[in-house]
Amino acid sequence: MTSFVIEADGGSRGNPGPAGYGAVVKDAADGQVLVETAEAIGAQTNNVAEYRGLIAGLQSLLALAGDGAVVEVRMDSKLVIEQMAGRWKIKNEGLRPLALEAGALARRLRVTWQWIPREKNKDADRLANEAMDAAAKGRPWQPSGSAGTGSARAGSARTGSAAAGLSEARELGLSDASAAEVSGRPATAAAPLAAQDSLLDLIDADAVSSGQDAGQDVSPGQDVSPGQAAASGTAGTGWRAPTTVATSLLLLRHGETPLSVERRFSGLGDPELTPNGIAQAEAAAARLSREPYGIQVVVSSPLKRARATAEIVAARLGLEVVVEEGLREADFGDWEGHTFTEIQRRWPDALAAWLADPSAAPPGGESFGVAARRVQATGDRLVERYEGRTVLAVSHVTPIKMLLQSALLAPLAALYRMHLDLAALSLIEYYADGPAVVKAFNDTSHLR
Predict the structure, then answer these.
(1) What distance in Å separates the CA atoms of residue 400 and residue 394, rounded to the nearest whole number?
(2) Burial, 93: exposed, middle or buried (Cβ in 10 Å; 0-12, 13-18, 19+)?
(3) 100-109 in b/e burial notation, b at 16+ Cβ within 10 A?
(4) Which entry of 82, 101, 329, 429 is annotated as an active-site residue?
């Protein structure tokens, strides 16, 4: 698989003042320069020039290798990297349109974001200065010839094996997905940032260059010295407007069943919802049909109690239910339909082992360790398939706990320390650079 590196930079001589950007695309394997691009952009701030450099680099890579290319974006702008990675809010409204434009381009690629010190960003810095020097002499920037292409805005020549393979495949009339297979690149895309609602209230930190104290706003004409330290803020609460895209996974436990009323183990058995369970599902549906949720996909365990809950919500949303086998409850084997007390009397040793060790399984059943691998694979598949969207997953106690445990990077034994009510909502948001954030847990406010 061919992967790439984008190095981008921008500068302003005056901040604001005469500004320019530079970007270079390299082969990640050997560092070969594939594209260089630069441009003077008139009187602008450092931050605007840095974002313009990022946009030019993303455009160049898309022209070179097409959608789905794997790339590490490297910049010495702490502001741009942290905002694009979703860790810092965009408080300067003048930068928001540029961030959204960059995010829309980045969504078409598989991007990771990496801050680097200025001395390691010499190629992009050189290009930005070349563009500003040329503008000062009244001339447009011209490529030096070290790369095989010119300006991204004028269109980039395709070089390198991955780009050539993709181009040839497209010329054969294949779809983008098939062309990606021919070229040896995956056709899937990542979701770093886009203009889409999110349920996440991001960290309140904004900084430029090497950092700035949290809570201090950055104006277009303000520069920050390299000695200032970046400080992390604290995550907020509530459902506020987003600054970055997330793949939002809303987790809804099914409504009440006869077995849950009697507190009996309910795994792969298939009880129906009680009338109260139906009312709980309807209450969840009423809540989830309102802002700010914006649910776009409904997926469900195949078991009746979850499917019935999902169908009630989906009907309210005007959506179809997609069944996901991996969201089924754990198999409790011989314990199915029994109460905890009955199990303790009949299988005391097996119960003690099960409570102490996630690798221990009920007689004839499935251990938490085995179930967790199945659930995690399903969660990963959902995040990849529906990246950047808001997905409602209707499931059961064990799978929901496992998804939360995984998002928190907690050990599997954490399952024993969680409680989930019937028809409770939890929320995990997944970001393109890897982190997952648990935003809500066991929320039953819609049932009150």
Answers:
(1) 9
(2) exposed
(3) bbbbbbbbbb
(4) 329
Q: Can you tell me the distance from the alpha carbon of 230 to that of 78, in angstroms, rounded to the nearest whole number?
A: 9
User: What digits encode the pLDDT tens for the residues 418-442?
Assistant: 999 999 999 999 987 667 899 999 9
At 91, is the pLDDT very low, low, confident or very high (cuts 50, 70, 90)? Answer: confident
Whether 446 is catalytic: no
DSSP for 175-212 reads -HHHHHHHHT-------S--S---S---------TT--
pLDDT at 66: 86
Radius of gyration for the alpha carbons in the chain, expressed in angstroms and rounded = 26
Mean pLDDT score of the chain: 80
What separation, in Å, do the N-terminal and C-terminal C-alpha atoms of the chain show?
53
pLDDT digits (tens, 9 = 90+) for 151-203: 333 333 323 333 333 333 333 333 333 333 333 333 333 333 333 333 333 33
Are 102 and 39 a contacting pair, CB within 8 Å? no
Q: Give the DSSP H or E segment for 342.
A: helix 340-346
Q: What is the pLDDT of residues 105-137, one digit of tens each?
A: 999 999 999 999 999 999 999 999 999 999 988
CA distance 394 to 322: 10
Count CB-CB contacts under 10 A for residue 42: 11
Q: Are 425 and 286 in contact (CB under 8 A)?
A: no
Which one of the listed residues 254, 282, 338, 366 is annotated catalytic? 254
Q: What is the pLDDT of residue 230?
A: 28
d(CA 357, CA 374): 18
Q: Are strands 436-443 and 425-430 parallel, antiparallel or unpaired?
A: antiparallel
Rounded average pLDDT over 207-229: 29
Decide if 325 is catalytic: no
